[in-house]
Amino acid sequence: LVADPVSQPKAARLRDALARVDVLFAGPEEAAELVAVSGDAAHLAAALHAAGVGTAVVSRGSSGVVLADSAGVRVYDAVAPERVADVTGAGDALLGGYIAGLLAGGPAAPILWGLAAASVVVAGDGAVPADLTRARVEALVD
């Protein structure tokens, strides 16, 4: 089960289900709402994992993400886009790319697929640019 609380006000609805979530994507405000603590992205990701989330991914915006799971807490830098055209849809692309990477089952970590997909969206026109393809994302992951 992959979840995204969408917003800080809606995050509270997910709080009682954290132990059933395999992967959670959240912004810092949403993460803080879910675990009722404050701190940086690394602290929040670790707190989400400690609350029962299998893999917690906390966004750091254009700086990338922090991921916490049974292997520990790791920081992943964003994949630098060719240009910044529009950030609309970047979070959705991050999550969708992660799922695509998970399903691909290759050697690259799924989060790298997510970061690559987000980079393509940020550089493109609109929330779903024409070049947001598996081949384009794979090229960035490699």
What's the story with the biggest beta sheet?
A: 5 strands, mixed
Give the end-to-end Cα distance, rounded to a whole number of Å.
Answer: 27 Å
Helix content: 40-55%
Order of helices and strands: EHEHHEEEHHH
Number of helices: 6
Structural class: alpha/beta
Strand content: 15-25%
Radius of gyration: 14 Å
Question: In order across it, which strands form the biggest sheet?
Answer: 1-2-3-4-5
Multimerization status: single chain
Provide the residue-averaged pLDDT: 94
The best one-word shape is globular
Give unreliable regions as ranges.
Answer: none
Number of distinct beta strands: 5
SSE topology:
Blueprint: E1 2-3, H1 8-11, E2 23-26, H2 28-35, H3 41-50, E3 55-59, E4 64-69, E5 72-77, H4 90-104, H5 110-123, H6 134-141
Parallel strand pairs: 1-2, 2-3
Antiparallel strand pairs: 3-4, 4-5
In short:
With 142 residues, this protein is of the alpha/beta class. The chain is built from six helices and five strands, in the order E-H-E-H-H-E-E-E-H-H-H.
Structural account:
With 142 residues, the protein is an alpha/beta fold. 42% of the residues lie in helices and 16% in strands. It is built from six helices and five strands; from the N terminus they run βαβααβββααα. The longest helix is centred in the C-terminal third of the chain and has 15 residues, at 90-104. The radius of gyration is 14 Å and the shape is globular.
For the structure shown, list the relevant keywords:
142 residues; alpha/beta; five-stranded mixed beta sheet
